[in-house]
């Protein structure tokens, strides 16, 4: 077997088939009808213009998170703390909105400042994980996980404490912002906000250009491939790690800002909606390269939105989307291993 | 609170630490062999759900516990197969499995959510339970809590006092040297990772058949435990007794959060429940800071006697991971 585009594609297709087989098996185990489940997921994601716009609403924060993660993956860092960074972005955004909502300023200006505040929040939280890693020797995975829990606690404390609704605080979040302070919604749609779509598309293009076309990106790659030799060649490794954390935090912060200003219009306990972890999966699936991130994130968003109806129409839990996404990433990773094993054997023989 | 109620609750702290202990000891064995099993969080959820489902349909808690161990072993098998045989990143595979197993448990568990099933009962030890104070705290527990005490001692004895234990440390520390001395590194890594997975898998049924009996889906309160387990493993410095101390400290802090709740009405309960996490980060920082290069450099500048004292404190807290943790071994 030769290493070619064709064999690589073959393994990708194989991974998709295996993921479908396993998920179908899981559905049989749950005594459900697989074809009905797949049909309703497809209908739930593509059935009407309204659900299609919902897919894009979910695509924006997912792609933003993935874009940020591609930068940290390039320097070889596992930024699992991204969930907390999204949450802090949302908290800072809400804080700015609360500060300015009665100022009488132009709503567009307020929204722009709120997104900037979100960037700041995400970046600060990411740099905290970065500082723990570079100065404290705490592995970014464990530091990040701990910071995720702290961010959740901070968020819940704000919702139930200082920022609680007048009267009784509840899990439904803070009091919604005035309609004039919502991200403007496109005509003929109920939730689609063109401004956030632009942010996501510009974001992934910036990341692509940064990694593939700049000196900064080249150095990031050098650190990621071999931090020691990069250091010996005179690249200040820790500065590059810190900057990649900061960049990823900015993207996560924007994702949090989008959740607050365009999706929920308030702060809720689970404001990050798991987009950070899902972004890690998308980044793994695209082999940490920016070129495929947008379409794959769209597919994952479609699965998420498509499965929302499952509990109602088929009495199945909507976590089926996660099962399908998880098996898909797992088989792609396993497939890479099998492929390189076979390639190695053929090389030895020839 | 009067004293006897306090002792009963302290007994409860020991019981609620039992599943964490099993998981931490399992992970410690696996990481000692050089295999980082990051799937812990999803694996505990899946084994909790799976073992409850098995116990519910068969009426046997024993089969439930076996199912939990089996699920733990199988998930670990996927991690080692992907990393040792297929040479893929342990972190990547472990993380995917952490999410996949969590979603699987929610999906497959939804039909049995909220059902009342079998659970293991208290097993007071005759005689010993009469001892004042200690009897109430230590000897009115269930089987698995007693086993958790024994497990810590067994694991310590095995790792540090036996010949196979020496080899176990060898394959995680210097696999090449262990290989030269005749150890089949990869086979042993398979063995210990799967064994560690099976032990950790018992954490699930200890929750669903005892500590938090039943399966309640996303509100089970189990999501997150696995990540704590991984932090406690580091805090424990890959030593069973220190790990046990970490597990008890965590259980105690969570209990303290519940006790303090009435006296701090302004703080929502969800905040107190996560109070141990910032503490975990701080401890990770203390445990690791001695490894950082700049600390060594700045220490070198201090006067000799001060330096020696600080270095001593740092060394006491310090924990160094097995040198070959997460690194695949190839014979060439």
UniProtKB/TrEMBL annotation, chain A:
Lipid bilayer topology: Multi-pass membrane protein
Keyword Transmembrane helix attached: yes
Segments traversing the membrane: 56-78, 108-129, 141-160, 197-218, 238-264, 320-338
Pfam families reported in the protein's UniProt record: BPD_transp_2 (PF02653)
InterPro entries noted in UniProt: ABC_transp_permease
UniProt GO cellular component terms: plasma membrane
Organism domain of life: Bacteria
Entry keywords, A to Z: Cell membrane, Membrane, Transmembrane, Transmembrane helix
Location of the protein in the cell: Cell membrane
GO MF annotation, one: transmembrane transporter activity
Name of this chain's protein: ABC-type uncharacterized transport system, permease component
Organism: uncultured spirochete
From TrEMBL, chain B:
Keywords, ordered alphabetically: Cell membrane, Membrane, Transmembrane, Transmembrane helix
Main subcellular location: membrane
Segments crossing the lipid bilayer: 6-26, 38-56, 62-84, 91-109, 143-160, 190-207, 219-238, 245-264, 270-289
Pfam families (alphabetical): BPD_transp_2 (PF02653)
Compartments, as annotated in UniProt: Cell membrane
Record-level Gene Ontology MF annotations: transmembrane transporter activity
Membrane topology: Multi-pass membrane protein
Domain of life: Bacteria
Coiled coil location: none
One of the record's GO cellular component terms: plasma membrane
Keyword Transport found: no
PANTHER family named among the record's database cross-references: ABC TRANSPORTER PERMEASE PROTEIN, SUGAR ABC TRANSPORTER INTEGRAL MEMBRANE PROTEIN-RELATED
Protein name stated in the entry: Inner-membrane translocator
Organism of this sequence: uncultured spirochete
